[in-house]
Amino acid sequence: MELDKRDKQLLTLLQENGRASLTELSRALNLSIDSTHKRLKKLKVSGIIDRFGIFINPKVLGFDLVANVQIKLHNISEKELDDFTSYLKGHQNVVELITTLGDYDVTCVIIAKNTEELEEISRKVRQKYRELIADWKSVINLKVHKFEHYSFDIK
């Protein structure tokens, strides 16, 4: 789907405030509420807007550590990969899970209250899947400067 200037403006506005009302959006776009609603629906139906959500600050909830973990797997069948990803998806401390192409096969984000909890989570996952995990690399996030924000060249 080709995005025009107004579509790009609408996406930019929604990234800044996903709870903006149709009235607010239509004013900012200088369009009618009906036209704005049609554009919004078109962006959702096309899949450009996948869903609306909120961003939770894990530190405010007591999770002081946010770790990006890259996992390399070896000798893994499709069923084993499904089992592994299902386990991680169901883990309450895994807040993001992505299969990747490159040096590592899976990237996940784990939140923990402290280093002891992070070590315990890591150890349990690594022990449970020791036959599948070839390498495990963790990096602690210090500060998020940009997250899921797309810039559009609006001309």
Please render the helix and strand layout as text.
Layout: H1 5-16, H2 22-29, H3 33-45, E1 65-73, H4 78-90, E2 94-99, E3 106-112, H5 115-128, E4 133-140
Antiparallel strand pairs: 1-3, 1-4, 2-3
3D architecture notes:
The chain folds into two domains: 5-45, Arc Repressor Mutant, subunit A (Orthogonal Bundle); 65-140, Lrp/AsnC effector binding domain/regulation of amino acid metabolism (RAM) domain (Alpha-Beta Plaits, 2-Layer Sandwich). It is 39% helix and 19% strand. It has five helices and four strands. Strand 2 (94-99) and strand 3 form a beta hairpin. Helix 2 crosses helix 3 (33-45). The mean pLDDT is 94.
Quick structural summary:
The chain has five helices and four strands; from the N terminus they run αααβαββαβ. The chain has 155 residues and is α+β, with helices and mostly antiparallel strands. Helix 2 crosses helix 3.
